[in-house]
Fold tRNA(Met) cytidine acetate ligase.
Amino acid sequence: MIIAGIIAEYNPFHNGHLYQLNRLRETLHPDLVVVVMSGDFLQRGEPALVSKWTRTKMALQSGIDLIVELPFVYAVGKADTFARGAVALLDQLGVTHLFFSSECGQIEPFQNTLSLIQGHQDIYSMQLAHAMSQGLSYPNAHAAAYRFIAKNDPRELVDLAQPNNSLGFHYLKAIEQRNSAMIPLTMKRYETEHNDRTFEKDASVASASSIRRHLLEGAALQAIKNKIPHATCTALKNAQETYGYASWERFFPFLKYKLLSMNTDRLSEIYEIEEGIEFRLLACIRSAHSFHDFITSVKTKRYTWARLQRLAVHILTDTLKSEAKPLALNQEPDSIRLLGMNRDGQAYLALIRKKMEIPILSKIRNHRSKMLEQDIKAAQIYDYLVALGHTSHPFTETGHPPVRYDAHQKSFLGDSD
Amino acid sequence: MIIAGIIAEYNPFHNGHLYQLNRLRETLHPDLVVVVMSGDFLQRGEPALVSKWTRTKMALQSGIDLIVELPFVYAVGKADTFARGAVALLDQLGVTHLFFSSECGQIEPFQNTLSLIQGHQDIYSMQLAHAMSQGLSYPNAHAAAYRFIAKNDPRELVDLAQPNNSLGFHYLKAIEQRNSAMIPLTMKRYETEHNDRTFEKDASVASASSIRRHLLEGAALQAIKNKIPHATCTALKNAQETYGYASWERFFPFLKYKLLSMNTDRLSEIYEIEEGIEFRLLACIRSAHSFHDFITSVKTKRYTWARLQRLAVHILTDTLKSEAKPLALNQEPDSIRLLGMNRDGQAYLALIRKKMEIPILSKIRNHRSKMLEQDIKAAQIYDYLVALGHTSHPFTETGHPPVRYDAHQKSFLGDSD
């Protein structure tokens, strides 16, 4: 059997994702397409526009067979951590081929790059430490160290300064580290000639970030209708009319309140608070009138925007070093949270369930672990803040069933409807 | 010199307080009246209707000469802690007579009660422990133990089940414990025949709680105008038009968010979280739609409403056991935060300043202690939550100068105006 895996955020699911999925089906003819998707908070340290349940529905309606959740501790982690958690879940689920988009578009340069870095680990590490001691951010220091060891290599290498190339590199590294038989495949990213800020009115594809920007700035759905599948359009419309889109600006009063309630000691207990950034955060929060204000005032060249946003998520969700660090560094996912499936996905699950080393959870009422506790907490905070001022949610996070979709009838089944 | 001291919350300053002040001036002819007043959070575990700065202005306009702040750790403490902090501050300030209202109205029964309990400390403690093991709240257990030792005493005693009698008793106890020469005096509380819920339309006096209830339920100021001094009326009107009154219901979304972000381990680090109440708090918060809902669902006979509200304040302000407990149990106030004064108050301060054992702080930019940190934090949270959605505050808590009032010109001076 060919089981294809995708690692995604679908924030929101758009035509570029659909294009990727169609290419995957055409080239690989998989028996099943499995997605591991981030929950309500994302790798760049942002709340998702709409909840993981809404995004699951979008993906099922566009042809994904099975969707599971990437636990919070990996989902809101740096590229390395993110990739390790996602690859582990896909591997556990029996995925044979990992399919990802990249600016590069060829798999060989990734393999060359991985072997190059592994062959020069000592020099690479020294150069990395040197660059960071000069005050560079991790991604910039990494790029500098990489340029240093790559400069005399005759092979075709991948440009790791490109964000999707960098993620892809970490996928390959994670596959190798766990001795997985999973085969990595890549395709060129649809909008690779443009940058993420580009948004062409008549083009059928735009980046997720430019779509989000349009939506958060209040543009009508009409303006992006040609860039998203019909199902996404309907789901966004519903979400917008019910609670509105989630955004850091909406959540900001709660982040500010949280920071005002903390001193530097307490703040330094938060995951990824390091190097004295706690003093800077507390000095900047008092006069910040918006999230954008705040991050702008905290920003230095040592910190990427994404890293500061991830810090803000950890503060908002009270994610502690003592709890998250051991999980992110050492631990494999200890269960698989099922977000949604169609009949094919369900049949596949029935097939593999007994062979699995970790439980697959449909509901999480009766299963708890440190890792799941963080997922539940993050979802509860997200749900509460999004719904604030509206009528209450009809369900609780812990009681939420997976979304079940009938691809033939094009309808949702049971209580997930 | 006769320096009279009053311990107050002035939430808000009303005709009953004015009556108390006038009686004090008529009977004692003090050279100065000093008030130690709680900050933005009060002994019953509630945010004050209007900020400490506004309440300071009310009090100065009604004839108080000097007002200092009772630090948060005492102000939001049980009667014992509250009294200990307040008496220590008045003592430091050279107060010769402590004047308080009580349901009893005579000082001798207080002295009899204090000597009775001190003479039967062992039996009293045993009875107290016994009653609490039966699941009674502390005040009820205390009343039961007291009834037990009081039953054969021929002297006139005070009914400690009455809230103002109980506070008065703790004032006398604190005076005795610190071997202070301060003389306690009491007068009968104005509305002693009525209970706190009573609010008579035409009466010139009503309790602060009934006045607050009217205001928070949206009654026009007109309805309470005959029960408060003109200065209070003006100050309330301004506050209401600027930010509205503070209340637990307005702050509730932040309390709920805070609880949703905590697990039981983290919650048990909060000051006064004991006996497993953390499980109950987390079990009840998810479905609570209002603060009143929440406390109602948590309430058992072991906990008084005030105790649960104080817990809620400690959660909202992230007041930790590790920080607050040592301060509340063992430590004296380590500085005196000046809130306001008229010329008499200022002259008196100049006189005593050099003899003081602890610094008197006009601004707190350059002086920090654990105790002050909590005061600043509580004020910052209060100010932020009250002003949320409005234009920002013109000043920061740490830079706020004391209010200076010219009693002859009936006007405020300098930058506090």
